[in-house]
Design brief:
alpha+beta; 289 residues; 49% helix; 2 domains; globular; Four Helix Bundle (Hemerythrin (Met), subunit A); single chain; disordered N terminus; Heat Shock Protein 90
């Protein structure tokens, strides 16, 4: 009990609410990253994102005074690094769930502490112009979680090209971009065996890129997957249309491309799609500057 009391006395109670809010963001990323490694579905970018999340959680835990938690994260960080140095392939054969469970167990008492001195958490970059980079973690999480659920190997590339969006615009576009990335994983990228038979690389590629279009600002979400049948191109924005053969947590829930189109239209923009069977699809959002 004295050890717990001592640990509690080291906590910065003003920083604790901010730390817990950040931990709630980081922990799902860490869980997904470890699951991707375990399933053999992680590329080097996914590994780097996992390592960054661990490093950030460790640093903020120590800064807040949650030293035991910081050390547990540090041990997992070191163990992961040793495995990577040995071989990327070794990662799929090592179970790190006990390390994760220890981190979760140390985090829970902090969640349970009364927080009557809450500090207001401010979103990074709130009220400022921003590039697509502010959505990078969110979009990678959507891609990783969907790829893991469907056992697909997918690499997501985000290119902001230094294009800045007015305050609040990317907040509005976040959910539509989530849907387009998820849609690309579910309906665009083929299973590994299908890609192999088609002579494609095992890893499917999805690109989210900001640019200047003829109308002003543009965002493209493109994939190198199966493409869309020509007969469906005129229907995919119809309310209720779904290409999912079955309802899963990843697709077929009725939140379709019509909802994406509605948001873009409310912003004064348009969305178009181009597709080539066997080569992939590209959704282009154009917005007034």
């Amino acid at each position: 009990m004295r050890a717990e009391s001592s640990a509690a006395q080291e906590l910065d109670l003003d920083l604790l609410p901010v730390f817990l809010a950040e931990a709630e963001e980081l922990l799902p990323r860490i869980e997904t990253g470890l699951a991707l490694l375990r399933a053999g579905l992680a590329d080097l970018d996914a590994l780097r994102r996992l390592q960054r999340s661990l490093h950030t959680l460790k640093g903020t835990a120590r800064m807040t005074g949650a030293l035991a938690l910081g050390e547990a994260v540090h041990r997992l960080e070191l163990r992961l690094k040793a495995l990577v140095d040995d071989s990327m392939q070794a990662l799929a054969s090592i179970d790190l769930s006990a390390d994760l469970a220890q981190i979760q167990a140390l985090l829970q008492p902090l969640r349970d502490m009364p927080q009557d001195r809450c500090a207001a958490a401010v979103e990074p970059g709130a009220g400022r112009e921003a590039t697509l980079e502010v959505l990078a973690d969110r979009l990678h999480r959507v891609c990783d979680q969907t790829a893991l659920a469907l056992r697909k190997r997918v690499h997501l590339c985000i290119e902001d090209n230094g294009v800045y969006f007015a305050p609040g615009r990317l907040d509005v576009l976040a959910a539509p971009l989530d849907h387009l990335v998820r849609n690309a994983v579910v309906h665009g990228i083929e299973p590994g065996e299908v890609r192999r038979q088609a002579g494609k690389p095992a890893w499917g590629q999805i690109r989210v890129e900001a640019n200047w279009s003829e109308r002003g600002l543009g965002i493209e979400v493109c994939d190198d997957g199966a493409g869309i049948e020509a007969s469906l191109l005129d229907r995919i924005f119809e309310p209720g249309f779904s290409g999912a053969r079955a309802v899963t947590h990843a697709a077929g829930l009725g939140i379709g491309l019509d909802a994406v189109q509605a948001v873009v239209s409310e912003m004064g923009g348009t969305i178009q799609v181009a597709s080539e069977p066997g080569r992939g699809s590209c959704f282009r959002i154009s917005l007034p500057a």
